[in-house]
Write a structure and sequence with these properties.
- The protein is of the alpha/beta class and 247 residues long.
- The chain has one domain: NAD(P)-binding Rossmann-like Domain (Rossmann fold).
- The protein is built from 7 helices and 7 strands, in the order βαβαβαβαβαβαβα.
- Strands 3-2-1-4-5-6-7 form a 7-stranded parallel beta sheet, with helices on both faces.
- Helix 6 links the parallel strand 6 and strand 7.
- Helix 4 packs parallel to helix 5.
- It starts with a strand and ends with a helix.
Amino acid sequence: MQDVIVITGASGGIGASAAAQLAADGASLLLVARRDDALAEVVSGCGPRAHGVVADMTQRDDVRRVVAEAIARFGHVDVWVNNVGRGISRLPSQLTDEDVDEMIAVNVKSALYGMQEILPHFISRGAGQIVNISSMLGRIPYVVQRSAYSGAKHFLNALTANFRMEVQEAHPGIQFSIVSPGVVRTEFGVRARHGGVDSRQMPGSQSAEEAASVIVDVIKRRRADVYTREGFNERVKEYYAALAEDP
């Protein structure tokens, strides 16, 4: 693989695992995160073709800076992975304005800014791929205390699909992909707004490496909409089929 790939949220978890696997495949990487020390460790482990940029992807100016630095360093970008995200632990009846605002800023706006700011570059080249990391909760809102997170990921899924429809009408070489993991053994749970259950201790969880391998496959095969676990597609179909049944 000779692609130039930007990964946001790359200082740990799925982002760091995807970076390691893509580096092993020969990709050139621009890795982005807010945590300087953690990011530097991931960059070091990915070898000489990896470069790190400390940035806050909820700030459009930072996103523009990342785009400019990626193009300046590598000459072009082939794939942009929007992997920034944060959960929340609060019942829907208790949500505050600040809760909702943060879920939208982190889980939606970070990806929206990435899509909008890299898109002119992809259009100029007639090719490119954006991979948005969503969640099974963006399909089925089955965890009540994650309601605002679920809503944000539903929003992200709709944006991704509508970007695909808009852009591919004139630029079929540009792909917009959604990857939806379930529970992954990362710090996601304990880093959630208002705290939460440690995802690393939850039964039926998936390793970050397993989820990342699906992202790598999505990039290689340019797949549009993929779950990281077998059976998730059927589970989604069954959920909505049951809702549609007559009472």
